[in-house]
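Dear Dr. H.,

I hope your travels went smoothly. While you were away I took the liberty of generating a structure for the chain from your last submission, since the lab meeting agenda had it listed for discussion. I wanted you to have the full record in hand beforehand rather than looking at slides cold. The sequence, exactly as received, is reproduced here:
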Amino acid sequence: MGFTNYAPLAIVAIVIGGGFGLGRKPAFSSYFNKHIKSSSERATVLSSLSMFKTFVIAIANLGIGYALGLSIDYTLAFLGLFTIIFAALFRIQENYLLD
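The corresponding predicted structure, in token form, is as follows:
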């Protein structure tokens, strides 16, 4: 998206990029539900992870907002590259999903 001004292509890229991220949430939820036996512990862990995620998003949005003020194209290109690197480093392995 950082290299095009063509709106339909940018919209398709946003939908595809968002779709890849949506598959991870149910996998992680299933993983935690299988490995944390106590209901109260599970609630605490999931709540803590949600709070941490929200905190990281809030801090990241400040930096992203500043970077967008400098250059929208470079910021989008950097975010895309960062996402690809992050997805490659932190893959969900099949043995995490097996019972």
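Two observations you may find useful: DSSP finds five helices and no strands in the chain. The chain has a mean pLDDT of 81.

With kind regards,
E. W.
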